[in-house]
Amino acid sequence: MQHLHHPLGYCECGRPVEFKQAAGSGAHREVSCACRRRHDVELGASGWTVVAELTPEQSVPLSGFSTELRHAADAERFWFSYALRGGAALPVHILFSCSAKAAEVRAADLKVFHVDGVRLPTEARRRWIAWWQDRRPSRSRGPSPVVPSRVGRLPVMHVARRPETHPAR
Length: 169
Ligand SMILES: [Zn+2]
Known about the structure:
By secondary structure, the chain is mainly beta. It has helices at residues 67-70, 121-135, and strands at 9-10, 16-17, 22-23, 28-32, 38-44, 47-56, 75-82, 90-97, 102-107, 113-116. The strands form 2 sheets. The chain has an 8-stranded antiparallel sheet, covered by helices on one side. A two-stranded antiparallel sheet has the order 1-2. 22% of the residues are buried.
């Protein structure tokens, strides 16, 4: 085990991200900050580095998330930002239950991604990114049947939360 004398990085709140508080095993760990942010720490060629920060949130847009998870007594909510289509980063929401070992992840207008067997919210983030990246190659061959290219014209799921999404002129 590598012993670190310096913080791995700094949290948004200014506190150091320190390896001694890490949870998990293997090449990915999660460090909880006193401010309740979670940091995803990864072992790479140059040692441990912070690769992502999850920010707790009091409320998220709950449409699309399952009732079971929304009502889990220990449900926790986080968000992180991610450049979905290589452009501007968008907020991605995580609903996580430690007791259920499950999470649901939702980005923009995409359907909710359910993850089973996760013990940490940062693990749910990584599983979601892997799922998302798996789907990307099909887009290079033209319009994707999986991912609508524009926000606001979802042909699937519930019919129109907002019937008219065009910006008014
Ligand atoms: Zn912090």
